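Hey,

The postdoc asked me to send both predictions to you directly instead of through the lab channel. I've kept everything plain text so nothing gets mangled by the mail client. Protein one:
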Amino acid sequence: MALAAGVALLLAPAAGSAAESASTRKLTLRDSLYRLPLSQPAASPQCTLVLCPVVQATPSVGSGPDSGVSGLRVMGFPLAPSGVTAEARSEPQPFEGAGDDGTASVLFSAARSAEGAGGTVTTDVRLDEVGGGTVITLPSSTVPLDGARHTVGPVPLDPKRLVVGRSYVAVARFTFSVPAGGDVTARIFAPELLALGPQKKVAKPKPLKPRKPKAALTGRSLRVTVACPAGPARCDVQTRSSLKGRTIGKGSADLQAGAEHTFTYRLSAPELRRARRVGRITTSLKIQDEKKRTGSSRSSLVVRR
């Protein structure tokens, strides 16, 4: 069985919300995916006198996403219904956890498919500790004969149930019930054990604190000076000057750290009269640096009547 770490893979959603939230993120270098390829199943046909079903192992897949699939075809004798049980096992796999930071959670899943005419097949998959008992069993399911791949899990598993350094095997069990003359093929794909490392908390970036914009009105000319703080490498700045919410000037610029820029707006005669009547021009500033950190500030300019 191969161990893959740092591989981007999405598992099918589980029924529980805890498993859903853990399984939808991509694998990181702190996570480990253990795939448990299964051997060919050993079958035990149920015979009526000498009327035994024909049982054939499906060809194994050696590579690709379906490597390690184990399957069985059961063809019922034309004169009697057939029952077959079969079991496939994986090679022992040492468990090494999810990385140097420890193991936060573990998920176990397996996919199965079936096709044919008539009959049913019920599959069970469990994880056993070598020399110990069963660690976890996936919910038993009767697979529809639609040829589609159906995934059971991922089911969450308490990491304390697995011991680093000990070996584990996956065990898959088929139970066929095939009518006289029926033909059913079932497959179980390599079960997967996903060990998730602890999630590092990403600190929220501190907001930027730009200085207030400086505004000056000379005649009908409004000059607004803004600056990028000294910390970031570059800033995208946006400024807006208004009279009680009505914009009289706005602009944007890309500035280097610590640099200033002055915007100049020429007010119309009605805007100047309104500014004197209102008595105050409000200027707002918004900035964003290369790290997507943001900041804002505001200032007011008193206009004499």
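Protein two:
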Amino acid sequence: MPKVAVLDMTGKEVGSVELSDAIFAIEPNISVMHDVVVNHLANARQGTQSALTRSEVSGGGRKPWRQKGTGHARQGSIRAPQWRHGGVVFAPKPRDYSYTLNKKVKRLAMKSAFSGKVLENNLIILDSMNLESYRTKAVVEILNAIGANDKALIVLPSMEDKIIKSARNIPGVKTAQVNTLNVYDMLKARKLIILKDAISKIEEVYA
């Protein structure tokens, strides 16, 4: 089992915790993580882009000139794609880009992301994060103390309103609960900060 040090809010080591081999010590599957990230980005697309085809553009009900004898190329409508203000060829229309992946694939990708952070020494276990009030400065001081002041993802065991609201204005820092974690945010973050109480929930969800 991988053994990771537990830090307090000042960055001092206050103990250690043994993590599950099944979640934090597997061989990261890069291909599966890539598939899950592509799926996440596709599902996030609004799909509201739209343009008009030649049948939807106004005007152009008659031929601009007769078929032969003018010296010009034959034209059927001034709203054909080659004309200014003409319709768009194969115009994009609103569509749903989302698709589903197997649960086993998503679970393997999550385990691979966790294990990758452990291998890269980018996993930080925090004993607790007790804030007296809603203060962004307090969270910044904690992140600086533990060496995670750039692109960090803080994993919370439950809804911690003070932490979430205090951290949301810090550039590059995000918070997530165990049940809202996703591979995209984990890979995007340089440091994965997990509160100690969230470890048991992670091992329970992804076992």
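Summary for protein two, as requested: Residues 31 and 109 are 9 Å apart (CA to CA).

Thanks,
C.
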